[in-house]
Amino acid sequence: MSDQIIKLTAAETAAKIASGELTAVEVTEAHLARIEAVDEKVHAFLHVDREGALAQARAVDVKRERGEKLGPLAGVPLALKDIFTTEGIPTTVGSKILEGWIPPYDATLTKRLKAADVVILGKTNMDEFAMGSSTENSAYGPTGNPWDLTRIPGGSGGGSSAALAAHMAPLAIGTDTGGSIRQPAAVTGTVGVKPTYGAVSRYGMVAFSSSLDQGGPCARTVLDAALLHEVIAGHDPMDSTSIDEPVPPVVEAARNGSVQGMRVGVVKQFRGEGYQAGVVQRFDESVELLKELGAEIVELDCPSFDLALSAYYLIAPSECSSNLARFDGLRYGARVGDDGTHSAEEVTSLTREAGFGDEVKRRIMLGTYALSSGYYDAYYGSAQKVRTLIKRDFDKAFEQVDVIVSPTTPTTAFPIGERADDPMAMYLADLCTIPTNLAGNAAMSLPCGLAPEDNLPVGLQIIAPVMKDDRLYKVGAAVEAAFVEKWGHPLLEEAPSL
Amino acid sequence: MTTTTDLVSYEDALASYDPVMGLEVHVELGTKTKMFCGCSTTLGAGPNTQTCPVCLGLPGALPVVNATGVESAIKIGLALNCEIAEWCRFARKNYFYPDMPKNFQTSQYDEPIAFNGYLDVQLEDGEVFRVEIERAHMEEDTGKSTHVGGATGRIHGASHSLLDYNRAGIPLIEIVTKPITGAGERAPEVARAYVRELRELIRALGVSEARMEMGQMRCDVNLSLMPKGADKFGTRSETKNVNSLRSVERAARFEIQRHAAVLSSGGTIVQETRHFHEDTGSTTSGRVKEEAEDYRYFPEPDLVPVAPAREWVEELRAGLPELPLVRRNRLREEWDVSATDMQAILNAGALDLIVATIDAGADAASARKWWMGELARSANESGTALDELAITPAQVARVTELVAKGDLNDKLARQVIEGVLAGEGTPDEVVEKRGLKVVSDEGALTAAVDEAIAGNPAVADKIRGGKVAAAGALVGAVMKATRGQADAARVKELILQKLGVEG
Amino acid sequence: MPGITREEVAHLARLARLELKPEELDHFAGQLDDIIGAVARVSEVADQDVPPTSHPLPLTNVMRADEVRPSLTPEQALSGAPAQEQQRFKVPQILGEE
Ligand SMILES: [Mg+2]
Ligand SMILES: [Zn+2]
């Protein structure tokens, strides 16, 4: 029974709880048992909130018994990336510098999940401060990819993607600054969406790069992602960069998947050197599939995309160097060197030195450099110009097409440790995802098969214009249905059992 | 702080050098809430009771701009004759400081909301000097640290510090002048007059009480000297956080003398921050920085641009109150007083009280007389500000009304005011309780006059003989007999009448 | 573009308040030099007449009314403090200017 519960989709689970076929407590217990059974191997969670999850599940069951109205995802368990604040529950952002910190407030997203009766199982592992593409930068140790535990589950949201792929939760939350939702989804055979910038509140989401960060839904199916998208999106007066417009009809789109008559763009800059053969093969097959399903394929040229990675590695570090200045050991989190011989200033330097990992230090220094007088114009200033050019390329592209598709990542999951000492190689994992973060529009990754050479999942990226997030779901649902029909089952069923 | 600084005399300094000043004034706005969060700004609350995730800089928290803060900034900009930006942004000024929770200050950098203005200031003798304004921009205040373990609560010698973030995030407007040149020996006076004028303007706009003694308004004095006839500015010093008008003037004066001493002995001025000491009137060097500050400004990505609609700006312009200098000149004319008298009224903080008293029905001369006389004395004695005395302009107006009607004479009026200040009630209640009415009963007065004439025949004869001035003695006798409650003018009239002399 | 020296890394570390160890200075100098060498490509567009984009969406004038909202309790505010005293955050001696 428990085994069947954890294989259900979020939509199915919600329906069974609403009808009384399952209780929320049963569902929660099944997932907690699964976590207990496999997370020692996977290490997806940094903190499991057993009591809180069960209490929330009981509340849902009581609500149902009383005949009160339930939210669309009432009683469905969720794995929350440890970057959103949770009142009374530790929030570490994968960093030693916040070890033991218990926030006195809930992020807006956390509040919305609770208000929708979603059951939060715990907080998931991530690259420290969301900086990384492998979850190896977590101060609390790496997470394994359920497809092959010696490989990375993607990053920074590897804990969330692994939790989904290992059936520890049907829903998860990620954040995407340069691909941290989509890239983990791609390498674990799951679905991840980076909504339009400003669609999901950033209040209470620990900032990495404010103008790029965006929270979003992660799931095993396109419909589940849409259901979660609808719960977490919407205007928030606490976030000045939040969009004050109705959420696009994502659930309706996911229920009515179709690409018939749509124009789908293929960008010539998203292939070539560095792309794994099997990834390119599965991508080309996806394009063929789209044609078969009635889409018109349009070749696009977006020359500025070649500069996207460079611009990203100036903008994101610049913003992070400032965002992370607040971690000074004085008001919260770790404090190192307060032994009566060091000044406040020295304690700050010692705390930051001990509390931050290498990648975080590297990016803080890179950003400090890019913003410093004499270099600002050449680096930060130029990067912002590149950003304008990338937006223009997207604008031009979306005059010709409804969505763009590409591989989500140039390669499948690489072995843990392989790129740990080569930051530049690591950065290449986000080659296809970064342009969207710079321009602020929406994108999704969903599975499009296994690479023949390593039998690991390949992700298909769909990119839509700003606030046309519904198109992702319309196209995604059609592609997903066609693939499942072709394979005879969802891709995840091919994953080895843990 | 025992190091003595070489100075040259002020006159000698000015004989060889021209001072150039730049004044940076920070004003804490009187908004109900902080600049980027909804925490209250009420003074005197317990430590860390007015903080939230935003103003504590907790991970994940985000700022949202206070609309009234922006409105106040625009009003200040307009009152300073500035252009108001059509589009501007906030920027982050990055530096580490324990008082500053995010370790960056949300401020404005190359896109201030107001720029290119001026403020006319009036010196003691009435001369008007125009100070050009570079910019006025929005930013936020820091928290407050208390240093524990040191002898004087200062940083030096402290064992540790305690931080209260109630003040962190309170809206600040920073107003920066262009270099002030051409003031010559009057530079320190110009500095003082500018800060005072700015304070009056801020108060008139109703955007802040601008109480310097409470840190609601603080001035940084930048000063440099150039040899007479030169046109290239010298190296400046920046004296931080000067907290009274008098100190602004003294700090500028001291720095002129110090710079002159250094320069005339062939030395060079180091660009540095300095601290002003109220007790000695001198400045001392701040901590020498190992490397130049690099604030790494960049546009605040958590906030969107502010683009004040022109209609809004014009609406605010139309709603500006009469500006202090204009108003002062108008009142000076209406009241017919000298520049010096007006200055005295300003210095006493009596202007608004006098105007309110006139508005409540008093004539201008009486209102001025009471506030600058009896009440100023009383405030002085009790060491309180005029506007903190326990009497309202309406009550003062009532006293003047009673005097005008002849119900009180000046002497009685002073007793009434004394009673009101002592908390005995309204002027009418004090009159009632103390029985202070002027004796206006003609019968009683006539009797008292007759008695006085009868009791002082020699004096009466002198008056009859034409020595009208001698009447004073008889008036005094009548006043004594009536315990001061007679109308002295009427008494004199009656005496002269009785003795058959024309007044 | 100039290479990043060990001294520059030390300077950056001071600005960023990171008490780097000597071996880290060398390690980061090499890596930062590589990264900056690669990303310096953006300066290809430096002389193009293109406006900068600091923010992905063209929003303006997002403001709130000047209305008081509840603050945290002082207990909540200080709940994460490594040290506290008299309802204030306790920190070591501050060397900076007053
Ligand atoms: Mg300032
Ligand atoms: Zn606050």
TrEMBL record, chain C:
What does the record give as the reaction this protein catalyses? L-glutamyl-tRNA(Gln) + L-glutamine + ATP + H2O = L-glutaminyl-tRNA(Gln) + L-glutamate + ADP + phosphate + H(+); L-aspartyl-tRNA(Asn) + L-glutamine + ATP + H2O = L-asparaginyl-tRNA(Asn) + L-glutamate + ADP + phosphate + 2 H(+)
UniProt xrefs under Pfam families: GatC
The keyword Nucleotide-binding appears for this protein: yes
State the protein's purpose: Allows the formation of correctly charged Asn-tRNA(Asn) or Gln-tRNA(Gln) through the transamidation of misacylated Asp-tRNA(Asn) or Glu-tRNA(Gln) in organisms which lack either or both of asparaginyl-tRNA or glutaminyl-tRNA synthetases. The reaction takes place in the presence of glutamine and ATP through an activated phospho-Asp-tRNA(Asn) or phospho-Glu-tRNA(Gln).
Q: Which family does it belong to?
A: Belongs to the GatC family.
Please cite one Gene Ontology biological process associated with this protein. translation
Please name the taxonomic classification of the source. Answer: Bacteria, Bacillati, Actinomycetota, Actinomycetes, Kitasatosporales
Instruction: Quote the protein name from its UniProt record.
Output: Aspartyl/glutamyl-tRNA(Asn/Gln) amidotransferase subunit C
Give the quaternary structure: Heterotrimer of A, B and C subunits.
Give the Enzyme Commission number: 6.3.5.-
In terms of Gene3D superfamilies, this protein maps to: Glu-tRNAGln amidotransferase C subunit, N-terminal domain (1.10.20.60)
Sorted alphabetically, which PANTHER family does this protein's record hold? Answer: GLUTAMYL-TRNA(GLN) AMIDOTRANSFERASE SUBUNIT C, MITOCHONDRIAL
Q: Which UniProt keywords apply?
A: ATP-binding, Ligase, Nucleotide-binding, Protein biosynthesis, Transferase
Where is coiled-coil annotated? Answer: none
Molecular functions per Gene Ontology: asparaginyl-tRNA synthase (glutamine-hydrolyzing) activity; ATP binding; glutaminyl-tRNA synthase (glutamine-hydrolyzing) activity; transferase activity
| Region feature (Disordered) | 73-98
Q: Which gene encodes it?
A: gatC
